[in-house]
Amino acid sequence: MLLLGSTGSIGVNTLKVAKKFNIKVEVLVAGKNIELLNQQITEHQPEVVVIADISDISKVNHSKVYAGAENILKVIADSKSKLLVNALVGFLGLRPTLKAIECGKKVALANKESLVACGKFIDTSKIQAIDSEHFALWYLMQKRTVQKMIITASGGAFRDWDLDKLASATLGDTQKHPNWAMGQKITIDSATMVNKMFELLEARWLFGESIEYDAIIETKSLIHALIDFKDGSTTAHFAHANMQLPIAYALDIKMDENILKHVDLLKIQNLEFREIEKNRYPIWEIKEDLLQNPNKGVIVNAANERAIEKFINKEIGFMDISKTIIKAYETGFSMPQSVEEVFEIDKEVRASI
Which of 100, 130, 160 is the last residue of a domain? Predict the structure, then answer.
């Protein structure tokens, strides 16, 4: 397989699963964590390595190292592997997804932005989503009529904060996730609830427009998704929060191995559910409209990435991230009619912020 984003949390877990199932890692693509990358090279012996910055090539302990986005696409085209795991963060993960599908590869997709920004132009039959929420929905699917799909959210770093303190929240505050450690951007997205809105939009592209989609907060992150069937029954997917389970299914669909310990309900004793409230998560104001107009995902994604840059640079406050996205959403940018226009609109939105 090819693994894009090998040094992130999903990449690290993917390599653990690959080792468990004796899957050959042909290509590793990583960013700036060269120390961890070198450890991965020693253990997994990839044929090719691609990194972000050309100035870091000399630090990589491999004879075949390339740098930059164009070389990621070239390596995908040249590779023999039929499976690509895309765990890149952000819009930069879109072109690799498109290239892999163009080359006839199956894509195990953790890059949310691919479907959020370009879902209309992606053949989802070539995609196996490895977000825990979409995996759970897929896992629960039966040959019965689905009425509603519900995914769960942790609530992020500020789910228990006083509302009047949110405006003064710092970058450091956003990183104090209540349930686990993730990368910087996705942890900010969790705090704003943008991450969950993206996942709803992904579900819309993966499972179709005829289903109703929603999200609720489940504070222990043990239920990842629920399905309301038309007959009045509801099923829920319980599992400990560990990305190795969805990754394992993406790499080996048969899956007769034990991956996780079972959830012990007696030890849990109780679960807490909360509504996602607009006063705490203002981005939720555009949720329904976005699900009805999914092609506007490119606007939301571009505005979010640009707003996060400004927040990190202390140019705007935390609550301004959602305000920036909503303003861009309501500006009236044209809707993409092709893949090329997705990239054009992305540039337009970023330039406007």
Answer: 130
DSSP annotation string for 119-133: GGGS-GGGEEE-SHH
Instruction: Please list the residues that pair with 129 across neighbouring strands.
Output: 109
User: From CA 325, how far away is CA 128, in angstroms rounded?
Assistant: 28
* 8 A C-beta contact, residue 83 and residue 106: yes
Question: Alpha helices, DSSP H only, in 46-158?
Answer: 69-78, 94-102, 112-118, 132-140
Long-range contacts of 204-208 (CB under 8 A, 24+ apart): 204/119, 204/291, 204/294, 205/115, 205/119, 205/120, 205/122, 205/124, 205/294, 206/115, 206/124, 206/127, 206/129, 206/134, 206/137, 206/138, 207/137, 207/146, 207/149
What 8-state DSSP symbol labels residue 21? T
Of the three residues 85, 115, 130, the one that is the final residue of a domain is 130
Identify the domain containing residue 9 by its residue range: 2-130
Walk along the chain (353 residues) and give the pLDDT tens digit of each residue: 999 999 998 999 999 999 998 999 999 999 999 999 999 999 999 999 999 999 999 999 999 999 999 999 999 999 999 999 999 999 999 999 999 999 999 999 999 999 999 999 999 999 999 999 999 999 999 889 999 999 999 999 999 999 999 999 999 999 998 887 788 999 999 999 999 999 999 999 999 999 999 999 999 999 999 999 999 999 999 999 888 899 888 887 677 888 889 999 999 999 999 999 999 999 999 999 999 999 999 999 999 999 999 999 999 999 999 999 999 999 999 999 999 999 999 999 999 99
Are 177 and 28 part of one and the same domain? Answer: no
275 and 180 assigned to the same domain: yes
pTM beyond 0.90: the answer is yes
